[in-house]
Amino acid sequence: MKKVKQLIFLILISFVSACSQTPQDKAEDAAVKFSKAMYSLNFDEAKEFCTPDAENILIFIASNTNDEDLNTLKKAGNVKVSVIESTVYPGDSTATVNLKISNYVQLNMMGGKPTIEKEKEEKVDLVRINDKWLVDLHN
Hints:
alpha+beta; 4-stranded antiparallel beta sheet; 5 helices; Nuclear Transport Factor 2, Chain: A; single chain
């Protein structure tokens, strides 16, 4: 019985913390998840966090990704993504999240070799559609 009460308590805590996320927290979370998936070359997962127009860009990038890119990714290890700063604009329908991307593979779409890069900063623009933050690659 004690374990059941503890489990219920943990579920309630998780629910309350999930509900208490601000629009800024949610935008940051979407930007981080998108970028981590994108730089891990997991395009199917990245599609979940972007607009339909951005999804078309991901399809193009995925179609130009090859075995050499995937092998370079394996050598690089895990991509790290962290938030530097973020802004949710008035009306809570658009946001910008500045990220630090570390240990990532830089693809070369012009036929060159992919490279493992240490770090870069990247600005990610998002739009809020049906209460879900989505990365917009056209801003």
